[in-house]
């Protein structure tokens, strides 16, 4: 049916131009303090727009000005440019569909097609609102791979550009702790695209959900060292992940950890910041500045999420499992303390006056996690700083006391080999447990239901009597809600929000202070959240978008999501 698979190859056209582009990219990264490989797999995201002319000016008195100008011109640009007509024609002739080349020609440039029927699907291992993930076999090599199928809405250019950005980012990254994109599978006839990845047997969410697995301190250090190493590479390559959580951290049987799912990732330039959406990062790992509406942020958002992961691995359960944005902020302030007045003034966050707590909270991280290894407390304390400017960078965290004191991180090869486990497996176990509870309740109420049937010819089924049907209805409602969101910056599907993989009552490892989980305390605004939202093992099933105001302010205008 005209399906093709793409694998990375060296381009045979215009070698001189390619060499010049790679040289320009290397010069740009040298200005930013980066080291660049000399290999030919480099992907250039933007045109420097005259940077060479500035470099050749040779005017000494303007040296600093020229260097500053070059840095501004060479910022990573997430917007894709349309390919020249001759390149578009070459890509279509090579087997790429015109709808993909016209919008995402830059993302697929230098890759060659291969037929998709050389892949054999084995099992479905993941599912989201916009994509499904399959375990598959490359019938030509015998290698096991992961196929991520992404569906587009009627081939809308914005949807295709959204996926093209993920492809560009993945091609730009090359690190042992970042998942590797091995190719693409697409069809001339359908509105879908497959991303081909190396296959990983586990994710951290799936392992963490297992009641039989307990991570030791050396194992936690090993996983965290790999996570921070991967983040260090991403940030050095000017990439923000923007959705660090357990289900996006993949593990193989050799103990290797790789950061995956760059669907929400974005390029950034620390020297030339541009507004970005605050609707990123899964709720339980979202930093306070995003909850307060920040659009000018940097690597600190990924480091906050990493701090949450570290504390969860040591605690055996999520440390701040909020059900709504308001409750999440409340939990953050209860643990990390209220922001100072100076922070409120300098941040100028859009929701600062709305969500400012009525009472002041004292920071109590060390008291709450007093049973953690002493060397971990300074690292957690700094990663979970309210002010992102005070958080550790990935490089600084790797050199912290946590990794330089005994017991040291174990070697990845010494980690236990677990049976294959994914977040989806944990969800299936949770659904099975719910069905068993529903069946038990149905049997206990058998006599009462029999009397009900005697009085009525047609009994009304209890909602919990068919958990599978209810799950499908919930999923359909959530998909409808998700499709209403902006195509350019999609938020993680609500039913995947908060997915680390622990049950809310789990306490496999070390324990937190039981007094930490406080009763609900109102903020200074009229916003409120429901007391009984639908919950699953992985976090909030339904996360309301704009929080509800009191009846007096229902007619007032709502702020638009950026």
TrEMBL record:
GO terms for molecular function: ATP binding; RNA polymerase II CTD heptapeptide repeat kinase activity. GO terms for biological process: positive regulation of transcription elongation by RNA polymerase II. Gene3D superfamilies: Phosphorylase Kinase, domain 1, Transferase(Phosphotransferase) domain 1. The keyword ATP-binding applies. Residues 549-562 have a biased composition (Basic residues). PROSITE patterns: PROTEIN_KINASE_ATP, PROTEIN_KINASE_DOM, PROTEIN_KINASE_ST. It holds the Pfam family Pkinase. Residues 38-52 have a biased composition (Gly residues). Residues 119-403 form the Protein kinase domain. Residues 1-88, 439-458, 482-562 are annotated as: Disordered. One of its GO terms (cellular component) is cyclin-dependent protein kinase holoenzyme complex. InterPro entries: CDK, Kinase-like_dom_sf, Prot_kinase_dom, Protein_kinase_ATP_BS, Ser/Thr_kinase_AS. Residues 9-19, 77-86 have a biased composition (Low complexity). Residues 21-32 have a biased composition (Basic and acidic residues). Keywords: ATP-binding, Kinase, Nucleotide-binding, Serine/threonine-protein kinase, Transferase. ATP binds at residue 148. Belongs to the protein kinase superfamily. CMGC Ser/Thr protein kinase family. CDC2/CDKX subfamily. This is Protein kinase domain-containing protein. It comes from Helianthus annuus (Common sunflower). The lineage of its organism: Eukaryota, Viridiplantae, Streptophyta, Embryophyta, Tracheophyta.
């Amino acid at each position: 049916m005209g399906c093709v698979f793409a694998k990375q190859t060296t381009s045979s056209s215009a070698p001189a131009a390619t060499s010049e582009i790679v040289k320009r990219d290397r010069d740009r990264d040298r200005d930013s303090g980066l080291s660049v490989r000399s290999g030919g797999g480099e992907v250039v995201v933007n045109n420097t727009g005259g940077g060479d002319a500035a470099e050749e000016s040779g005017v000494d008195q303007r040296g600093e000005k020229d260097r500053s100008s070059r840095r501004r011109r060479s910022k990573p640009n997430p917007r894709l440019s349309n390919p020249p007509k001759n390149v578009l024609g070459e890509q279509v002739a090579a087997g790429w569909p015109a709808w993909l080349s016209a919008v995402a020609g830059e993302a697929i440039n230098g890759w060659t097609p291969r037929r998709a029927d050389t892949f054999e699907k084995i099992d479905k291992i993941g599912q989201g609102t916009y994509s499904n993930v399959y375990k598959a076999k490359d019938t030509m090599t015998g290698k096991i791979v992961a196929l991520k199928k992404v569906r587009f809405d009627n081939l809308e250019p914005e949807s295709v550009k959204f996926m093209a950005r993920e492809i560009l980012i993945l091609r730009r990254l090359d690190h042992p702790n970042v998942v590797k994109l091995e190719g693409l599978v697409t069809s001339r006839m359908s509105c879908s695209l497959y991303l081909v990845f190396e296959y990983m047997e586990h994710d951290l969410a799936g392992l963490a959900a297992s009641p039989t697995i307990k991570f030791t301190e050396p194992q936690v250090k090993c996983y965290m060292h790999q996570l921070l190493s991967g983040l260090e590479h991403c940030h050095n390559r000017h990439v923000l992940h923007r959705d660090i959580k357990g289900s996006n951290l993949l593990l193989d049987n050799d103990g290797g950890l790789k950061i995956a799912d760059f669907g929400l990732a974005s390029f950034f330039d620390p020297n030339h910041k541009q507004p970005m959406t605050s609707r990123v990062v899964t709720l339980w790992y979202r930093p306070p500045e995003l909850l307060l509406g920040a659009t000018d942020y940097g690597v600190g958002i990924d480091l906050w999420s990493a701090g949450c992961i570290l504390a969860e691995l040591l605690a055996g359960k999520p440390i701040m499992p909020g059900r709504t944005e308001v409750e999440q902020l409340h939990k953050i302030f209860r643990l990390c303390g209220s922001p100072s007045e100076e922070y409120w003034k300098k941040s100028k966050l859009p929701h600062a006056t709305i969500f400012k707590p009525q009472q002041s909270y004292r920071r109590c991280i060390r008291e709450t996690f007093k049973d953690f290894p002493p060397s971990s407390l300074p690292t957690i304390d700094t990663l979970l700083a309210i002010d992102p400017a005070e958080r550790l960078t990935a490089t600084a965290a790797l050199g912290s006391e946590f990794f330089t004191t005994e017991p040291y991180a174990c070697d990845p090869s010494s980690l236990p080999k677990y049976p294959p486990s994914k977040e989806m497996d944990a969800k299936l176990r949770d659904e099975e447990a719910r069905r068993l509870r529903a069946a038990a309740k149905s049997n206990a109420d058998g006599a009462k239901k029999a009397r009900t049937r005697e009085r009525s010819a047609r009994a009304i089924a209890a909602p919990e009597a068919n958990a599978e049907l209810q799950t499908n209805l919930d999923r359909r409602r959530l998909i409808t809600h998700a499709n209403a969101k902006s195509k350019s910056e999609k938020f993680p599907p609500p039913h995947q929000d908060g997915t680390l993989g622990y049950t809310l009552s789990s306490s496999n490892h070390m324990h937190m202070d039981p007094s930490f989980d406080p009763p609900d305390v109102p903020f200074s605004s009229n916003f409120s959240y429901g007391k009984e939202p639908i919950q699953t093992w992985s976090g909030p099933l339904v996360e309301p978008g704009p929080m509800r105001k009191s009846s007096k302010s229902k007619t007032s205008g709502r702020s638009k999501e950026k």
